[in-house]
From TrEMBL:
UniProt-listed Gene3D superfamilies: Outer-capsid protein sigma 3, large lobe
Residue numbers spanned by region Disordered: 95-116, 150-172
Source organism (scientific name): Selaginella moellendorffii
Name by which UniProt lists this protein: Neprosin PEP catalytic domain-containing protein
Signal peptide: 1-21
Length: 424
């Protein structure tokens, strides 16, 4: 490589790093500005409340992205603050794994390059045996969402409903989706591999996510939902990094559930993955594609819902005590993308879904979900899935499904948001 080309590459990398730093600084400045207006008494009160979220750490790791990862004893994690889990007996591993269906496409390998994303904080260390890594919540995190500890990390509306029966959209913006789904059966788990990108977010209180949902109950009042995937949410995390997330609710997001470990409920067991932490590395346009792999299934004996991340990392489980309808089975599974469009000037924003490219652009440019499957009542992992699709605004974000021998059932999805065809 010539000296001129090396200098050009160094300059390009510096400009990318500078733009990222300025973006993160602008987001965090919101929380810092609010903190300057707080009295000493208010700061002390906030810190007291944060102590209920941030459990004492036996070891602390500072991630390159600015996160603080606390290594907390398994027995001291937030889950056990939940009143329904007072007498819960910890399950250290699942009693049953889903049986692979004969002839099914493997969930352990990728066609072509086998590239799997993990997390950025691993560059700075690891948590000791007997602990779990938990992203520390800060005062600035709380202040970015208005200073309410009780509402931090909670959703404001139901997930996509392919039956198109929806409550009114909330004032903070409309939620738009490009999803594939199955419904009408009895489902005891779901799986997918999805590639990870860094979609641009135009307005800090918008977000972009890619996830799967396991759903049961009514979208209007008693909906049970288990969710997992990756998301970019400047308001929640203070930056625009894609992060692994989980969510749960048992009453349609009204009073129960939250993202990650920001309220009690999900029991984490693995010490190598921090829920809410930055995923790294990321997919490249016309370059390497990096997946995260997620399998969620119900243990037939304990009725707990387990989550596996990557080729074989047991992340933890949602205890059966948390749910009503999901105490039995899910009646719908959804996979795909979601964004929030606040339309600040009466026009659709340019917040991207997935890679920011339409599904018709295919591999290397569009986002995908592959090797989709569900677990049936006999604990078999079924990969012959009859998918339906929904894209509410296909000129902004669309979806295109397909099948292949290596990828099984898969689809491309996403889009750029605002463009000449997307003006609503």
């Amino acid at each position: 490589m010539s000296c001129r080309r090396r200098l050009s590459l160094v300059l390009l990398l510096f400009l990318i790093h500078l733009a990222s730093a300025l973006e993160t600084g602008a987001i965090n400045a919101t929380g810092t500005a609010h903190r300057r207006r707080l009295s000493r008494r208010q700061v002390l009160e906030l810190r007291k409340k944060l102590n209920n979220i941030n459990k004492p750490a036996v070891h602390t790791i500072r991630s390159p992205d600015g996160d603080i990862i606390d290594c907390v004893l398994i027995s001291n994690q937030p889950a056990f603050d939940h009143p329904l889990l007072k007498d819960h007996k910890l399950q250290v591993k699942p009693d049953f794994w889903p049986d692979q269906e004969d002839g099914a496409a493997s969930t352990e390998s990728s066609p072509g390059d086998d590239k799997v994303s993990y997390q950025l904080w691993h560059q700075s260390g690891e948590c000791p045996e007997g602990t779990v890594p938990i992203r520390r919540t800060t005062i600035d995190d709380i202040l970015r969402v208005g200073g309410s500890v009780s509402r931090y990390g909670r959703k404001a509306r139901p997930p996509p409903n392919p039956r198109r029966i929806r409550p009114p959209e909330p004032a903070q913006g409309s939620h738009e989706h490009a999803i594939a789904f199955i419904n009408g059966g009895q489902y005891y788990g779901a799986q997918a591999s999805l590639n990870v990108w860094k979609p641009a977010i135009q307005v800090p209180n918008e977000f972009s996510l890619s996830q799967m949902w396991l759903l049961a109950g009514s979208f209007y009042g008693d909906l049970n939902s288990i969710e997992a995937g990756w998301q970019v949410s400047p308001l929640l995390y203070g930056d625009s990094n894609p992060r692994l997330f989980t969510y749960w609710t048992s009453d349609a997001y009204r009073t129960t559930g939250c993202y990650n470990l920001l309220c009690s409920g999900f029991i984490q067991l693995g010490r190598s993955i921090a829920i809410g932490a930055t995923i790294s590395p990321l997919s490249l346009l016309n370059g390497a594609q990096y997946d995260i792999r997620i399998l969620i299934w119900k243990d037939p004996r304990t009725k707990n819902w387990w989550m596996r991340f990557g080729p074989g990392i047991l992340l933890g489980y949602w205890p059966a005590e948390l749910f009503t309808h999901l105490g039995d089975h899910a009646s719908m599974i959804e996979w795909g993308g979601e964004i929030v469009n606040t339309a600040p000037r009466g026009h659709h924003t340019a917040t991207q879904m997935g890679s920011g490219h339409f599904p018709s652009q295919g591999f290397g440019q569009a986002s995908y979900f592959r090797n989709l499957g569900y677990v049936d009542g006999t604990n078999k992992l079924k990969t012959q899935v009859m998918l339906q699709t929904l894209a509410e605004h296909p000129n902004c974000y669309d979806i295109l499904r397909a099948t292949s021998g290596d990828w099984g059932n898969y689809f491309y999805y996403g889009g750029p948001g605002q463009n000449p065809r997307c003006q609503q």
